[in-house]
Amino acid sequence: MPITYRLAKDFNVAANIIRAQVAPNQIGTLVVELSGDIDELEAAIEWMRSQEITVLLASREISIDEDSCVHCGLCTGICPTEALTLDKDTFKLTFTRSRCIVCEQCIPTCPVNAISINL
Ligand code: SF4
Ligand code: SF4
């Protein structure tokens, strides 16, 4: 089903795909940023759930274990929103929580498992 097309056409909701893991004839996962009128957004989410699509809102949070982090910067290269950056003066990792969209892409990139998600 062309979900993002239906969201745009039927609900006037724009879906910005942050991450997609979709394989033919298998369950897929999309991380999307939805924007539109609040009533249309709620109707769009209701419609997706009526189509047996599991919708999880991003109320989860990323957590960085500062004791484990070695400030290698690997996670900053994968972060699509620049929530993770290296301070140009100290070369230490900076996490700007307000920019994080909880796409989880940084988690597997960390070589010391310093990044986790709070459910
Ligand atoms: S989950 Fe990680 S990669 Fe995704 S936006 Fe947040 S900090 Fe960046
Ligand atoms: S990848 Fe891990 S160790 Fe490297 S800067 Fe990011 S959180 Fe720190």
Describe the structure.
There is one protein chain. This protein has 119 residues and is an alpha+beta fold. The chain has two domains: 3-50, ACT domain (Alpha-Beta Plaits); 61-118, Alpha-Beta Plaits. It is built from three helices and six strands; from the N terminus they run αββαβαβββ. The strands form three sheets. A two-stranded antiparallel sheet has the order 1-2. The chain binds iron/sulfur cluster (2 copies).
How many helices in DSSP terms? 3
Largest sheet: 2 strands, antiparallel
The number of domains is: 2
State the strand order across the main sheet. Answer: 1-2
The CATH class assignment of the largest domain is Alpha Beta
Shape label: elongated
Helix content: 10-25%
CATH architecture of the largest domain: 2-Layer Sandwich
Runs in which pLDDT lies below 50 for 5 or more consecutive residues are: none
Strand content: 15-25%
- H-E string: HEEHEHEEE
Radius of gyration from CA coordinates:
17 Å
The N- and C-terminal alpha carbons lie at a distance of 29 Å
Q: Top keywords for this entry?
A:
single chain; 119 residues; alpha+beta; Alpha-Beta Plaits; two-stranded antiparallel sheet; 23% helix
